[in-house]
Amino acid sequence: MWVSSMWWPVLFLCAAFGAVFGNEVTLPVSVKFGDGLLSFSKNTNGLFYTINEQDGLTVENSISTGESNVARNNQEYTLTECSTNEEACVEFIINDVNVILKKDLSNRASSVSHVVVNSSTDGVRIGACVELGDGVDWFGGPEAKYQLWPVQDAQWNYTAYYTKEDDAVAIAEPYWLSSQGTYLYVNPATSMFIDQNYLNEGSLCIYAENVTPYRERNYTSLEYWIGRYEDPRTAHEAAVEEFFAKPTDVPDERMIAQPVWSTWARYKIYVNDTIVRQYAQEILDNGFNHSQLEIDDFWETCYGSLTFNTSDEKFPDIKGLTDDLHDLGFRVTLWVHPFINVDCTEYYSIAESAGYFAKDVNGTILTTWWQGENASVIDFTNEAAVEWFTSRLTALQASAGIDSFKFDAGEASWAPEPAVLTGNVEESPSIYTYQFARALATFGNGIEVRTGWQTQDLAIFVRMLDKDTSWTFENGLPTLITTLLVMNLAGYGFVLPDMVGGNGYIDGVLVSTQYPSKELFIRWLQANTFMPSIQYSFVPWDYDNETVEICRTYTELHEAYAPTIIEAMNALVANGTPVNPPVWWLDPTNSEAYNISDEYLLGEVILVAPVVVEGAVTRDIFLPNGTWRDATYGTYDIYEGPTWIYDYPAPLEVLPYFVESSYWETLSAGSGAFLPSSSLTAIYTSAILALLIQLFN
Ligand SMILES: *[C@@H]1O[C@H](CO)[C@@H](O)[C@H](O)[C@H]1NC(C)=O
Ligand SMILES: *[C@@H]1O[C@H](CO)[C@@H](O)[C@H](O)[C@H]1NC(C)=O
Ligand SMILES: *[C@@H]1O[C@H](CO)[C@@H](O)[C@H](O)[C@H]1NC(C)=O
Ligand SMILES: *[C@@H]1O[C@H](CO)[C@@H](O)[C@H](O)[C@H]1NC(C)=O
Ligand SMILES: *[C@@H]1O[C@H](CO)[C@@H](O)[C@H](O)[C@H]1NC(C)=O
Ligand SMILES: *[C@@H]1O[C@H](CO)[C@@H](O)[C@H](O)[C@H]1NC(C)=O
Ligand SMILES: *[C@@H]1O[C@H](CO)[C@@H](O)[C@H](O)[C@H]1NC(C)=O
Ligand SMILES: *[C@@H]1O[C@H](CO)[C@@H](O)[C@H](O)[C@H]1NC(C)=O
Ligand SMILES: *[C@@H]1O[C@H](CO)[C@@H](O)[C@H](O)[C@H]1NC(C)=O
Ligand SMILES: *[C@@H]1O[C@H](CO)[C@@H](O)[C@H](O)[C@H]1NC(C)=O
Ligand SMILES: *[C@@H]1O[C@H](CO)[C@@H](O)[C@H](O)[C@H]1NC(C)=O
Q1: Where, residue-wise, is CATH 2.60.40.1180 in the chain?
Q2: What is the distance between the alpha carbons of residues 585 and 60, in angstroms, rounded to a whole number?
């Protein structure tokens, strides 16, 4: 194990290419910058400057222009000192590339460097690379299909950093954090690309370049902050305070406590009145609770009509159906997407002639989505379009008895590119997502979206992008945890996990279905138990009675801990702290905690260690600093963390979890309502037996 407290990322910023560095420029060798050193070098790829920061937390000198280091014969170069008491600052211009470096000296416990590089030269690409470093773990970055945790081994091949369908980047906040307590935050209004482990192996590089999907601007700008703190938790708290909006409230509490039931994975597009009624009845007959029943794809006459198909084979009397479901105690929600297919002629032509579709620079409005080869997408940055869209939804709610909505898509990439959107050009195209989520959040805190960009303030659930029915890091069960952690680090703590067992797609074909195995289904639910909500589509009773019993148990356990989930959500509202943090959150200086990707916390009081490996019936568990009560088997044994428990027995029916000791005492002193009910005992009998066998072997 190699950890260096002296480690600090090296930045090289290369303003490369063409006109800028075509001329020979004589460079200064180095300039003192705060407590670090700024040095320049040049090679055939362009100009580089490097900031080498020493461990100088106590240094508070203002910037020296380092006159003695400046090559005076450089005509195209000027250096100015712009310091105040709070900031060390240096500005220099090389040809027309204007570089401003600022260093925050006001906070003695930290060191924040602020870098702005501006150029109005055409075709310029400005980059900054952070060396990921041996033995350093990195967290954050985008939501991704192949979701790792930590993320330093991820590969990104010079890719535009905005909300997009490709690689499942539905959340793209420009924020990374290292186990050394360093954060990198980039101005979201950047024509940003990232490259990791591709052009520069071992580095995370950010770039600004004015090419599609970004709109043309007459300058290129890269602005970022590097914050350095004693550990990742302190760094994250500082970053949240500085850059993230906190949610204004918590989402719908019934959606937290009781499962959402979606028709999607089980029925795909073959939904109708009969099927919905049958589904509802099965849920009740099997003794499960529900927050809502969601009617998913395909209920419309055509995609984008927002009109129920009232044929006999579909929904002949939707109001009658929702009335009956309401009588049974269900709320009814509806899948809605922002597209209109070209063959949905009546509605398409209204939106087209009114200019409601997102268009590219040439006025093209055609796009493609998973249920429409020829379609267009509503422009959510156009107020009139939003008004038209939302008023149709409101009318539909009234006429069809719909309580709330599941809003799909919403990533900026669905618009033809480069899209011409209303609003700040610098924020285009992700401003699409920003306005999408904001417009739809007006339907209340019982909605769900699946994308976010600078929308952490909204009191709504954000769903993980569709998960696949698999055991692998390629979008399978292990990524239920890693995606949870990444979303939380990006400030989105109201995570709606995708459906239990995944979507059951066969080879990515949306309308075919392959059930998850019993084992995968149960392990998936267990992993989901202490996440903010449970969403079913495949059902336990399609397996066997044991599955039903186990699933009922963990669904109940989730509900029993709903008050704890809400407490953690209130902490996010108040302080910006993650609802489901990684285990290092409670042990931020312990290097053993950093790379644990198969455990998570609920608030700071529950530690969850699900089995996510096929066939496994034991696992190793890391407990971070603190006193923990083993709640798994109801024995409440005490463990002092940090410690490892090796080969902890966890047969199929068992989810290992631990309760922080003082919280456990609070619960025990109370009504005990939070503690697992006695119905768990039966489930655990065989597990306890397994434990005994294990102990006596
Ligand atoms: C960079 O350029 C943009 C556009 O001209 C300007 O708005 C911004 O203030 C500049 N930043 C700095 C630090 O000069
Ligand atoms: C990145 O490039 C490498 C090498 O060309 C390739 O193997 C890999 O599939 C690419 N990854 C992505 C996500 O495009
Ligand atoms: C960019 O172009 C706009 C419009 O032509 C102009 O107002 C603005 O000053 C320009 N900005 C820069 C940094 O050149
Ligand atoms: C409604 O659904 C039925 C059955 O799938 C289909 O045949 C019919 O074309 C649809 N009706 C409309 C108006 O789209
Ligand atoms: C509803 O859909 C199911 C499955 O596709 C089908 O078997 C059934 O006939 C449909 N119900 C009606 C009333 O058409
Ligand atoms: C827009 O039209 C011009 C001229 O035909 C063409 O060169 C350009 O590629 C088009 N841009 C897009 C995004 O289609
Ligand atoms: C989409 O449009 C193209 C070009 O007009 C056409 O060839 C194709 O058949 C259309 N696809 C569908 C599903 O209608
Ligand atoms: C569950 O057990 C009941 C009897 O208690 C039996 O009727 C039913 O068929 C069983 N269901 C399954 C799915 O095994
Ligand atoms: C259903 O909800 C009730 C009341 O909140 C709760 O006591 C019960 O445990 C829940 N049952 C299941 C199977 O989740
Ligand atoms: C996690 O880090 C430890 C060192 O702290 C190392 O021994 C272990 O192999 C790492 N595990 C993984 C899965 O990378
Ligand atoms: C461990 O946690 C306790 C409080 O539970 C705290 O006082 C102590 O400083 C922590 N130790 C480390 C190494 O973080």
Answers
A1: 583-696
A2: 30
CB atoms within 10 A of CB 3: 14
- Give every CB contact of residue 538 below 8 A, 6+ residues apart in sequence: 265, 266, 499, 500, 501, 504, 515, 516, 521
CA of 125 to the centre of ligand 2 (A): 21
Q: How confident is residue 51, by pLDDT bands cut at 50, 70 and 90?
A: low
Which residues of the chain does CATH 2.70.98 include? 24-242
pLDDT at 664: 93
Tokens of 338: 């922002």
Burial of 68 (0-12, 13-18, 19+ CB in 10 A): exposed
* Predicted local confidence at residue 287, as pLDDT: 96
User: In this model, does residue 10 exceed pLDDT 60?
Assistant: no
Residue nearest to atom 12 of ligand 4 (CA): 301
Of 44-48, 135-139, 457-461, the range with the lowest mean pLDDT is: 44-48
Q: What's the mean pLDDT in 355-377?
A: 98
For ligand 10, the distance from its centroid to the CA atom of residue 595, given in whole angstroms, is 6
Regarding the beta carbon of 399 and ligand 2, being less than 6 Å apart is answered no
Strand order across the 367-369 sheet: 339-341, 372-377, 367-369
Identify the pLDDT of residue 690: 47
Q: Where are the alpha helices (DSSP H) in 401-458?
A: 431-440
Cβ atoms of 235 and 177 closer than 8 Å:
yes
pLDDT 10s digits, 632-646: 988 899 999 999 999
Strand partners, 114: 102, 225
Q: How many CB atoms lie within 10 A of CB 106?
A: 11
User: What confidence tens digit (pLDDT) does each residue in 466-518 have?
Assistant: 999 999 999 999 999 999 999 999 999 999 999 999 999 998 788 789 999 99
Which ligand 6 atom is at minimum distance from the Cα of 362?
A: 1
Take atom 12 of ligand 3 and give the residue whose Cα is closest.
Answer: 218
Please give the radius of gyration of the chain, using alpha carbons only, rounded to the nearest integer: 27
Distance 274 CA to ligand 5 centre (A): 7
Residue 325 reports pLDDT greater than 80: yes
Instruction: Kindly give the pairing relationship between strand 332-336 and strand 404-407.
Output: parallel
Distances (CA, A) of 350 to 340, 353, 432: 11, 5, 21
CATH of domain 583-696: 2.60.40.1180
**Cβ < 6 Å from ligand 6: which residues?**
360-362
**CATH of the structural domain 24-242, one choice from 1.10.1760, 2.60.40, 2.70.98, 3.80.10:** 2.70.98
Highest mean pLDDT among 108-112, 209-213, 437-441: 437-441
> How many Cα atoms are found within 13 Å in the side-chain-facing hemisphere of 356?
22
Measured from the Cα of 257, ligand 9's closest atom is 5
Which ligand ends up closest to the CA of 369? 7
From the number of C-beta atoms within 10 Å of its C-beta (0-12, 13-18, 19+), residue 301 rates as middle
Tokens of 437: 């989520």
* d(CA 563, ligand 8 centre) in Å: 33
Mutate to test the pocket of ligand 6, among 211, 360, 362 (most ligand atoms within 8 A of CB): 362
